[in-house]
DNA sequence: CAGCTGACTTGATGATGTAGAAGTCAGAAG
DNA sequence: CTTCTGACTTCTACATCATCAAGTCAGCTG
C-alpha cells in the first residue's frame, strides 16, 4: 500500500536522496506566512496593504515574504500609479507562482477535509462555469485519476548501487 | 488572471478568513522534517530506524514528528515482531495520511520544475502500469484539467457583510 | 516647504524548528 | 543476572518565524 519504487530504486536501503525536490520546495515555502501570501496572490491580491490586511499579518512579515518571493521569481514586482497618488508596486504571480496552485489548493482541500469540523472548510474550490466541485489529484496522461497503488517513481539519473547497506548511494 | 471569487466573496475587502484551511494545514505540516517523514511513509517506509536513515534526520526529530503525526491521526502505530527480536512499532499511513499524496507530490513536482537545474529533479512520478508521467493538478468532475482562470471559490457559510470597510466580516 | 501617508526597514522578544550529544529503559542474547 | 541494542527522551545551542513597536523615506497635499 504505497507508491512503487521502480528499477534500481526498488531496494530503498540502497539509495539516498540528497537533492530532494520536496525538501527544496519546503525550504522556500515552509513558512505559514509564505503560504498565506501565496493564497492571497491566487485570490487576486496584488498590493502591499491588501496583503497585510488580508493575511492578517504584520507589515514586517509581509514585506519580507514579498521580497523573498520576488527574488525567487514566484512574484513579479511592477510599478503602478493611481490618479493623485504616487507610484507604488504591485506583486503579480509569475508562471512559477501560478504553478503552485495544486500545492496551495491541495493544502486547502486536505485541511478542509481532515482538520475542519465536519470535514468542511469555509471555502470550496469549484469550476467557474458550472459550479461543480474541483479536486486536486494525481492524474494520468489520458485523464484518469490515480491512487497510490497505481503510481510509481523512477530515477532520472543512473544510480550506482553501493555494496554496503549502511549508507546507500546518492542519486 | 486569478481564481474567481463568487457571490458574496466577490468584494475581497469585505470578508476575512479566520479559520483558513491552508493556515491550519500549514500549522500541522509546515516543517521540512514533517514533510520528509511523510515522503518516506509514501515510499513505504514504516520503521523508526528506516525513517531516521532515509530522511537523513536525527532520531530526536524523527521521534517527535512520528509522535505528532500519530497523535493527529496521519500515521497509525502498530506493533510488529521479527523472529528473535522484541516487539517494535511500525508507522503506517492512515486514510488521512494517504490523502496528503497530492500535497507531497505537488511539492515534488513544483520543486523539480522550478528549483532543480534544467527543471528536472532526481525522481519522476509515473503511472505504474504504463510508465507514463503523472501530474498533480486541479480537475473537474468529468476529468478535464483546469487552469486558474477556470476555477472559482464559493463560501460554504453565509457571509454577513460588514458595512465598514476597514476590517471585514469573518466567514 | 512642512506635514502626512504608504511602503517599507530595523530592532527586541518569545516560540518553534534543526542539530548534536547524552541519558533512559524494555527486553532478547549470552 | 548482566550486557547490549533499538527506540525513544532530555538537554543544550543556534537559526528562523511570528508579533509588536518604532524608525525611515519618497513624494503628494495643502
Automatic annotation (TrEMBL), chains A, B:
What are the coiled-coil residue ranges? none
Report the residue ranges that make up the HTH hxlR-type domain in this protein.
20-119
InterPro entries attached here?
A: HTH_HxlR (IPR002577), WH-like_DNA-bd_sf (IPR036388), WH_DNA-bd_sf (IPR036390)
| Annotated keywords | DNA-binding, Transcription, Transcription regulation
Query: Which Pfam families does the entry mention?
Result: HxlR
| Recorded superkingdom | Bacteria
> Is the keyword DNA-binding assigned to this protein?
yes
This protein's name? Transcriptional regulator family protein
Please give the organism: Streptomyces camponoticapitis
Amino acid at each position: 500500500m504505497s507508491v512503487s519504487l521502480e528499477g534500481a530504486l526498488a531496494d530503498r536501503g540502497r539509495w539516498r536522496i540528497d537533492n530532494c525536490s520536496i525538501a527544496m520546495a519546503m525550504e522556500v515555502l515552509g513558512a505559514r506566512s509564505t503560504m498565506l501570501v501565496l493564497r492571497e496572490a491566487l485570490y487576486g491580491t496584488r498590493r502591499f496593504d491588501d496583503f497585510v490586511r488580508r493575511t492578517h499579518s504584520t507589515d514586517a512579515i509581509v514585506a519580507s515574504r514579498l521580497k523573498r518571493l520576488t527574488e525567487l521569481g514566484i512574484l513579479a514586482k511592477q510599478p503602478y500609479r493611481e490618479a493623485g497618488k504616487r507610484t507604488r508596486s504591485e506583486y503579480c504571480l509569475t508562471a512559477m507562482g501560478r504553478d503552485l496552485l495544486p500545492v496551495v489548493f491541495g493544502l486547502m482541500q486536505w485541511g478542509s477535509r481532515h482538520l475542519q469540523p465536519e470535514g468542511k472548510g469555509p471555502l470550496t474550490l469549484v469550476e467557474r462555469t458550472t459550479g461543480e466541485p474541483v479536486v486536486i489529484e494525481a492524474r494520468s496522461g489520458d485523464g484518469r485519476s490515480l491512487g497510490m497503488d497505481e503510481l510509481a517513481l523512477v530515477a532520472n539519473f543512473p544510480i550506482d548501487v553501493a555494496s554496503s547497506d549502511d549508507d546507500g548511494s546518492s542519486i
